[in-house]
Amino acid sequence: MSRIGKKPVEIPAGVKVDISGKKVKVTGPKGTLEMECHPKINVKLDESGKTVIVEKQSDQSRIERAMHGTTRALINNMVVGVSKGFEKKLEIYGTGYSVKEEGGNLVVNVGFSHPAKMPIPKSVKVQIDVPATKGNDIPAKFTLTGYNKQEIGQFATDVRKIRPPEPYQGKGIRFADEHVRRKVGKALAGAAG
Length: 193
Prior knowledge:
The chain has about 190 residues and is an alpha+beta fold. It has 2 domains: about 5-85, Alpha-Beta Complex (Outer Surface Protein A, domain 3); about 85-175, Ribosomal protein L6 (Outer Surface Protein A, domain 3). Helix content is about 20%, strand content about 35%. It has helices at about 5, 60-85, 150-160, and strands at about 10, 15-20, 25, 30-35, 40-45, 50-55, 85-95, 100, 105-110, 115-120, 125-130, 140-145, 170-175. The chain has a 4-stranded antiparallel sheet, with helices on one face. Strand 8 (about 100) and strand 9 form a beta hairpin. The radius of gyration is 22 Å and the shape is elongated. It starts with a helix and ends in an 18-residue tail after the last strand. The mean pLDDT is about 90.
């Protein structure tokens, strides 16, 4: 039995959950999300309508056991997303690097011959806290917020892929809570003396 799958999903005030067959629709103050459940997983509201219960049809197949916890986690993310929302903080390290929002695109200048432009998904909002780096010590900072956890995570990962942090000086785009393992550079041959 999945320990996560057995836990019911609490529905906070202001959030409405509609279940029709295998389709789950969650509506809240931040937006609306929909999901199609696995055919072998049953989702239902309890009698009071305050929690969502996820059940598997049998305990035989491995895919049912795997999808039990996964489905519960996805529904919980939908409920949290439409009620509170999610955020990802990113930082850019490197002299002369910058970030700005321009015409629905995130424009990142990270040392290439031209700035990298990425279209911002509809459900994601970008808030730029520090637009440009100041030396190698003070990074440019921006935050991605929205109600769809999967879209925010995917967009943040795609932005990070533009220039991942390198291990010698730490230049590049990284998550705010990410630790970059640093390497020691080569020592000069004639320095020992």
